[in-house]
Amino acid sequence: MTSTLLKTENEKVTIALLPIDELKPHEKGSPLYLELLKQEILRDGMLKYPIIADEKTHVILDGMHRWLALKGLGYSRIPVILVNALQDPKIHVGTRRIHRYTTNADHKISLKRVLSAGISGRLMKPRSTRHFFPFSKFHEVNYPLHRLGKNNPKDISKYLAKMNPQECTLAIKEWLDEISEELEYLTKRKNEVEKEMTDFLNRTKKLNNTLHPI
Question: What's the CATH code of the domain at 20?
Fold first, then answer.
């Protein structure tokens, strides 16, 4: 493996520049979402955020469409946050974004299953997993494309799901619905916590009035 250390945010997050062909996806990509992302990357002229991969197997845990976009365009390297997926108990996998906050056994997917899919090449369905980490996924690197090395475009069709335009549009809608579900959950929790705080402050105020009557 040949890599270049870009920067270390802290002891648990290392961002490296890795050869793009050393990375392995664990699920198939969505053609429409890939096209939208590719256009954004080309418009920006940079990769804003690194992808996340297991440091031992190089299986991609987050950012597969970014990897597909750069690989398809012919770039030879990509910024990667490396994690020890099986050794970090704070890393877990669900099936929807909301499973960051609430989940049960039916919603959980083992990291071993994810890594096995990437190693074997028997890819899971598009967006069948959601990975959660003990750090923000949005560590900006804003890495210029011209520094990633450019070769001929590569055929990435084997990594993409076969979806017609209607199926692609539906997949985007489902993704937006999933984001809305998370926002509704967070709004509800915010309201609950604010009410709890108000009730607690009222109780302490009454207690102070009892202990220190005017």
Answer: 3.90.1530.10
Q: Which two tokens stand for residue 116?
A: 């096995």
Q: In this predicted model, what pLDDT tens digit does every residue of 170-192 receive, in sequence order?
A: 888 998 999 999 999 999 999 99
- Summarised one tens digit per residue, pLDDT across range 95-129 is 999 998 887 766 779 999 999 999 999 999 998 99
* SS3 category, 152: coil
Residue 143 DSSP SS3: strand
In terms of Cβ atoms closer than 10 Å to its own Cβ (0-12, 13-18, 19+), residue 212 is exposed
Identify whether the C-beta of residue 113 lies closer than 8 Å to the C-beta of residue 85.
no
Alpha helix stretches (DSSP H) within the chain: 31-44, 64-73, 111-120, 165-211
Residue numbers of the domain that contains 63: 4-162
Do 174 and 110 share a domain, yes or no? no
Q: Per residue in 34-43, pLDDT tens?
A: 999 999 999 9
Residues 61 and 105 in one domain: yes
Which tokens hold the place of 117?
A: 């899919």
Count: domains in the chain: 2
Contact 52/23 with Cβ under 8 angstroms?
Answer: no
Interatomic CA distance for residues 42 and 149, integer angstroms: 15
Check if the beta carbon of residue 5 is closer than 8 Å to that of residue 16.
Answer: yes
Whether 57 and 133 map to the same domain: the answer is yes
